[in-house]
Write a structure and sequence with these properties.
Layout: H1 6-23, H2 25-33, H3 39-47, H4 50-80, H5 86-103, H6 105-131, H7 146-160, H8 164-169, H9 178-204, H10 214-221, H11 231-258, H12 269-285, H13 289-297, H14 300-329
Helix pairs in contact: 1-7, 1-9, 2-14, 3-4, 3-14, 4-5, 4-11, 4-12, 4-13, 5-11, 5-12, 6-9, 6-11, 9-10, 10-11, 11-12
């Protein structure tokens, strides 16, 4: 595996912020052109029957992302909590995920707001507690391999930020405006990524390159006004963050699939998909195959396909179709 220094990721994430903003331009234009229409309807209207394949593609990615998130957090909890085995944590995260997804976006949003407040508080605690342990000289500057480091950092940032697919699929539910929400989301995501990488690298130094979860390890090494082992709070905070993320992906994935079936046949679809995902994560969660699923989801190719290429194609087809209709009417 290629080596990436913290400074390479920080510079790459900064560039990735600008790249991601540019990537979303076709979708924002498509959303405006279609008057905030649901993406599945836009796909069917602009591409005809090919729209069904586009819908399945988005749904498959969302369901794979949900399964991957549940597998990864179960592995994380099993690695550090050690109170129960990975099957127990898979069951817990699955039950929480299904409960929130079944109750819809309002439940996911309400729980998400509470967890967001706790997350911001934990970042504040990390910043205050990490100041006394910080050594700025641990952050080594980029040297001869500058461009390769920057490219790796940019690619890693764009690949890991899979939640932007949710932004595209849930755009018609946003009340604050898609453009403002998109800029706020990618800005906050980049700021959080850069902050956690900066803090982890300046506190841990080169040791952070040898651990799987550097931010968690950094939390375990700091103290705040005499309080230590603050990492324990992070275990359950990250569990809930993963549950919200997987619930949102599950909800959106099932909702996309429901559009392919008649109304009277949609009711059991949620439970059929949920059982299928449970079977998949039980098989993958305790094996190394979970890494393959995670790498498939966090890959720059599907992310670019779903956030840039397909929206751009639908935008061009919609414009061509609109001009043809005007020409026929004339």
């Amino acid at each position: 595996q290629e080596s990436l220094t913290p400074m390479g990721y920080i510079v790459g994430a900064t560039i990735g912020l600008l790249v991601q903003a540019a990537i979303l331009v076709p979708f924002l234009l498509l959303n405006r052109h279609s008057q905030n229409e649901e993406l599945m309807n836009t796909a069917l209207r602009s591409t005809g029957k090919t729209g069904y394949a586009v819908t399945v593609l988005y749904a498959a990615f969302c369901l794979a992302a949900a399964a991957s998130t549940m597998c990864e957090i179960a592995y994380f909890m099993d690695s550090f909590a050690r109170d129960y085995d990975v099957i127990f944590y898979i069951t817990v995260i699955f039950v929480i995920t299904v409960y929130m997804a079944r109750h819809g976006l309002q439940t996911i949003a309400r729980v998400g707001f509470i967890i967001l407040v706790l997350l911001l508080f934990s970042l504040l605690v990390a910043g205050i507690g990490g100041v006394s342990h910080m050594n700025i000289y641990n952050l080594e500057p980029l040297a001869s391999d500058f461009w390769n480091e920057v490219w790796m950092g940019t690619r890693l940032y764009l690949s890991n930020n899979t939640e932007v697919v949710l932004l595209i699929l849930l755009a018609n539910h946003l009340k604050t405006g898609v453009g403002k929400t998109a800029l706020g989301f990618i800005g906050a995501s980049a700021a959080a990524s850069i902050f956690t990488m900066f803090l982890s690298s300046t506190v841990l130094g080169t040791f952070q390159e040898r651990v799987a979860f550097p931010f968690y390890t950094m939390f375990a090494s700091i103290d705040l006004f005499g309080f230590r082992r603050l990492d324990v709070t992070q275990l359950y905070l990250w569990l809930m963050i993963a549950a919200i993320k997987s619930a949102a992906f599950l909800y959106v994935g099932v909702r996309n699939l429901e559009g392919l079936f008649p109304v009277n046949k949609r009711r059991p679809l949620f439970w059929i998909v949920s059982v299928f995902i449970l079977a998949a994560i039980l098989c993958l969660g305790s094996s190394t195959y979970r890494l393959i699923l995670g790498e498939a989801v966090r890959n720059i190719i599907p992310v670019l396909l779903l956030t840039f290429i397909l929206p751009l194609a639908m935008l061009l087809l919609s414009i061509i179709q609109k001009r043809r209709n005007k020409h026929d009417q004339a």
